Amino acid sequence: MKGEINTAAANLARVKERIERSASRAGRNAKDIALIAVSKLHPAERIRELYEAGVRHFGENRVQEWESKRAALKDLDATWHLIGHLQSNKVARAVQAFCTIDSVDSISLAERLERTKKDFNTEGTEDTEKGEEEQSVAPEMRLRVLVEVRLDPAAAKSGVSDEELPALVEAVMRLPHLDLRGLMGVPPYMEDAEKVRPFFRHLRELRDTLRSKFGRDILPVLSMGMSHDFEVAIEEGATEIRVGTALFGERVKV
C-alpha cells in the first residue's frame, strides 16, 4: 500500500506541475483551478489513495458505478461530481449520491432535478404550505449544477446545442433548488492538443455571451480539459479540469 500511495502522490505532483506551468503561461493563479480526479472504472481503494495524497474532487460517469463504491468511501470529506450523461430514471439516485451534477443538458432534466431536490429538502418537514415564490432556498439546500454544451459534433454525444443553450441557462436560473455555476464541455479527441484549442475557446466565448445577456457574475465555472489537453484548456480559461489517466493510470478494460 505504501508504494501505491507514493505512486498516487507522484502522479498528483506531476499533474500539479503541469497545472502550474500552464497557469503561469496564461497569467493565472493555479489555485483558481480545481482538479477533478475522474475515477471511472477505478476501484474505491485507488480513490482513497488519491484522497490521502490531497485530491478533494472526484468525478464519476455513471450513477450505478459510484453507488458500488460509495459505502467504502463515506468517511471522506470530498466533493463528488457526476460528469457523465444522466438518464431521467436515475435522477433521484443521482441527487442522493452526488454533490454536483455537471452534465445538465435539457430543460426537462433540469426540471426533474428541481422537483427531486425540492422533495428531498421537504421530506419529513411540516412547513410545506408556502409556495416557492414565498420562500428563499438556503444555499446548502440547493443542488450545484453545470450545463453541458455539445462541443463534439458527433450525433451520439450529449450536451445542449449552441442555439438551445441560452434558453436552457435561463430556465435553470429560475429553478430555486438548483445552483447553476457554469458550463461543461467535452471536445472531440485529438492527439494534438493544439487542435482542440478552438473548442475550449468557443466554450469560453459562449459563457461570455451569456454573461452579457444575463449578468456579469453568472457562470464562473468552466469545466473543460482532460489528461492530454488540460494545459490548453487552462490557457483558454478552464476553472475545473477533469483528469483520469494522468492520475490513476490506464483504466481496467471491462
Architecture overview:
The protein is an alpha/beta fold and 254 residues long. Mean pLDDT is 92; it is low at 1-5. The chain is globular and about 45 Å long. The chain is 40% helix and 16% strand. The chain has helices at residues 2-25, 44-53, 63-70, 91-97, 107-122, 165-173, 197-214, 230-235, 245-248, and strands at residues 34-38, 57-60, 79-82, 100-104, 143-149, 178-185, 221-223, 240-243. The two termini are 24 Å apart. Strands 7-6-5-4-3-2-1-8 form an eight-stranded parallel β-sheet. The chain has a single domain (2-120, 139-248), classed as Alanine racemase (TIM Barrel), CATH 3.20.20.
Radius of gyration: 18 Å
Which fold does the CATH topology refer to? TIM Barrel
Global geometry? globular
Distance between the termini: 24 Å
Count helical runs.
9
Question: Strands across the major sheet, in which order?
Answer: 7-6-5-4-3-2-1-8
Query: Helices and strands, in N-to-C order?
Result: HEHEHEHEHEHEHEHEH
- Percent helix: 40-55%
Which percent band covers the strand fraction? 15-25%
- Text of the CATH class: Alpha Beta
DSSP strand tally? 8
The major sheet is characterized as:
8 strands, parallel
The total number of structural domains is 1
Any guess at the CATH architecture? Alpha-Beta Barrel
* Average pLDDT figure: 92
Q: What is the CATH superfamily label?
A: Alanine racemase
Spans of at least 5 consecutive residues with low confidence: 1-5
Structural class designation: alpha/beta
Briefly, what is this?
40% of the residues lie in helices and 16% in strands. It is an alpha/beta fold and 254 residues long.
